[in-house]
């Protein structure tokens, strides 16, 4: 059990039978009435984000999440196959479970799998990944008044805004948290 006064960003908790990770929290002490903790929680089973208010001092269950290293092997239709790096066991996840992550996954890529009591909840990507530009229009000289950008399609199908000097076949560093261009690799 954990006291809501001890919330930290990234903490995993169990509330009403669901597993949540704490995205944001705020301790509120109004001038009149009891103190409370306002929190923003992400459901790890379905990806929904909810805002929840707890009374100060309330205790909730702490969820012990297990992270294991796995390799992404291949996609077959709507299913994506992974292999545990230690036991070599293979398992599949659906495209619905990996909606955002598919923008960054390449074959043979190492990621971490998130599981709770044997139930696979999803994957953790590295903070940034290297992806190759497969399609972009050439930059036009004289178009650079202030931080001009253009659209680029990456090898995973993700479209990002990049500076004009980026060309086709360049390898870029992309932030997996927001899907934005960071730099050339």
Automatic annotation (TrEMBL):
Top-level division of the source organism's lineage: Bacteria
This protein's UniProt keywords: Cytoplasm, Elongation factor, Protein biosynthesis
Pfam family, one: EFP_N
GO molecular function: translation elongation factor activity
Metabolic or biological pathway, per its Swiss-Prot or TrEMBL entry: Protein biosynthesis; polypeptide chain elongation
Database matches in Gene3D superfamilies: 2.30.30.30, Nucleic acid-binding proteins
InterPro entries: Elong-fact-P_C (IPR015365), NA-bd_OB-fold (IPR012340), Rib_uL2_dom2 (IPR014722), Transl_elong_fac_P/YeiP (IPR020599), Transl_elong_KOW-like (IPR013185), Transl_elong_P/YeiP_cen (IPR001059), Transl_elong_P/YeiP_CS (IPR013852), Transl_elongation_fac_P (IPR011768)
Residue ranges of every copy of the Translation elongation factor P/YeiP central domain listed in the record: 67-121
Keyword presence, Transferase: no
Keyword hit for Protein biosynthesis: yes
Subcellular location: Cytoplasm
Biological role: Involved in peptide bond synthesis. Stimulates efficient translation and peptide-bond synthesis on native or reconstituted 70S ribosomes in vitro. Probably functions indirectly by altering the affinity of the ribosome for aminoacyl-tRNA, thus increasing their reactivity as acceptors for peptidyl transferase.
Family classification: Belongs to the elongation factor P family.
HAMAP family given in the database record: EF_P
PANTHER family reported for this sequence: ELONGATION FACTOR P, ELONGATION FACTOR P (EF-P) FAMILY PROTEIN
Protein name: Elongation factor P
Species of the source: Paenibacillus terreus
Organism lineage: Bacteria, Bacillati, Bacillota, Bacilli, Bacillales
This protein's encoding gene: efp
């Amino acid at each position: 059990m954990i006291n809501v006064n001890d919330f930290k960003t990234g903490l995993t908790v169990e509330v009403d039978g669901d597993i949540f990770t704490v995205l944001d929290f705020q301790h509120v002490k109004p001038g009149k009435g009891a103190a409370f903790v306002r929190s923003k929680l992400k459901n790890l089973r379905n990806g929904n984000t909810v805002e929840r208010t707890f009374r100060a001092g309330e205790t909730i269950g702490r969820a012990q999440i297990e992270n294991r290293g796995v390799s992404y092997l291949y996609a077959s239709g709507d299913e994506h196959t992974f292999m545990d790096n230690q036991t070599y066991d293979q398992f599949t996840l659906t495209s619905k479970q990996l909606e955002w992550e598919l923008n960054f996954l390449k074959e043979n890529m190492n990621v971490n799998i998130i599981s709770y009591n044997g139930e696979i909840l999803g994957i953790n990507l590295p903070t940034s990944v290297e992806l190759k530009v497969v399609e972009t229009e050439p930059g036009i000289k004289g178009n650079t008044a202030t931080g001009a950008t253009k659209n680029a399609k990456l090898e995973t199908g993700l479209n990002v805004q990049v500076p004009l000097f980026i060309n086709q076949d360049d390898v870029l560093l992309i932030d997996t948290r927001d899907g934005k261009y960071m730099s050339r690799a």
